[in-house]
Amino acid sequence: MAKSIFADAPIAPTPKKKGGKQARTVKMPGLRNLNEVTKAVAVLMAVRETLVAEIKEKMISEFIQTGVATKQRPDNFVGEDGDETASCQLRKRSSASSLSPEEIEICKKHNIPLDTNVSQSETFIFNSAYLSDTKLMAKIEAALSKVPGLPADLIMKQPEISKTFTNDQSLDKMFMLGESAVQELIGILGVTAITPRFSEESDMVGIMTRVWHMVGASASLRDVARNAAANPISIIERKRKAA
Question: How far is CA 187 from the centre of its chain?
Fold first, then answer.
């Protein structure tokens, strides 16, 4: 059988992309120090984020235990560890942070008081496409319900736009409930905050030595540090955008 010039055609080679011009290299003393400090900063940021999450878990447990025992919103407290202390706070979720429909349903289930701000009420409006039709508007004015050939979309529904958020009674009501309900609600209604109160120690070499020893002694923190060192810029940029 004769070969087909189409079916048996050889595969055309893929054109090679032309490489960009390679940047020239210039000796730049101090660059190594800068890059290593950048990696160290990223590692410290990531480790701090991990430690904050661990401390906040302990704070939430303390607030739940105290609140459930007293059936009222517990006071904020000062946490201490040796010479270092921090103000540990439970605040109501900001009104700027609206609750999701799922969160609202959970709050309704437990009869938690909430506030709602309506920025646009639900109503019916005339479709603006017909407002310039003077003849049609005259008929509507005469007898809206009897206009022959009335467009089906003449009147349109404007949906309500609103947001629901916590109020000053939300947390108080929450702590009147049982422990399981408080555990379900506290992450919805409240936010925790840590404000460090630093000791007067100024031995930075000693502080850095203890920090690196702490990281090295913990397998989980070593993993956090390793990942941060591999992607230092992304860690730093993420924290900058979150600030």
Answer: 13
Contacts of 87 (CB under 8 A, 6+ apart): 76, 78, 193, 194, 195, 197
- Tell whether 14 is covered by a domain: no
Position 128 in a domain: no
Q: What is the pLDDT of residues 21-32, one digit of tens each?
A: 888 999 999 999
Query: In the structure, what pLDDT confidence band is assigned to residue 133 with cuts at 50, 70 and 90?
Result: confident
Is 150 domain-assigned? no
Q: What is this structure's pTM?
A: 0.73
Beta partners for 91? 191
Nearest to 43 by CA among 238, 234, 224: 224
Q: For 82, left (φ over 0), alpha (ψ -120 to 50), or beta?
A: left
DSSP letter for 20, please: P
**Residue 186 structural domain:** 33-96+171-242
Integer Cα distance of 37 and 46 in angstroms: 14
| 80 is a domain residue | yes
Alpha carbons within 13 angstroms on the beta-carbon side of residue 218 total 14
